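Subject: Predicted fold for STAS domain-containing protein, 134 residues

User T.R. writes:
Posting the sequence so we have a shared reference for the thread.
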Amino acid sequence: MAPTPCTLPLVEVGVTELDRDCLPAAGAVFDQLLTLHPRRVIIDLSRCRHIDAAAIGLLLEVHRRLTRADGVLTVRDPNPRIARILHNARLDRVLQIVTTPPSCAPVPPTEGHQPDSAQSALVAHGRASVQGPH
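User M.O. replies:
I've generated the structure tokens; pasting them so everyone works from the same file.
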């Protein structure tokens, strides 16, 4: 059976926390995101300060599901501590992990901005941004 064709070329996800406590909500966001059949998913970890083994498992699951659908998962801009954790877990051998030069880094959300719900999505011009719980 042929994979479902992609409906979006790119989905970007900004993650501020990724650990066991937020795993159910984060998993639900990624489940929703994968129903869009993206060609490429970028997980921006530039504002994430903590990641644990459960989060690594989630990243691997998202990678596996995307790969089966001919998609690609990229992890962008982990801080040095998280990059070391990903390296020690050998995720840098499985996932694309990239660092953007400061002039190309995405603009952070406006201070005090809170999404209307625990999960909010904005889709425009073939790109989607999904924010999970804060």
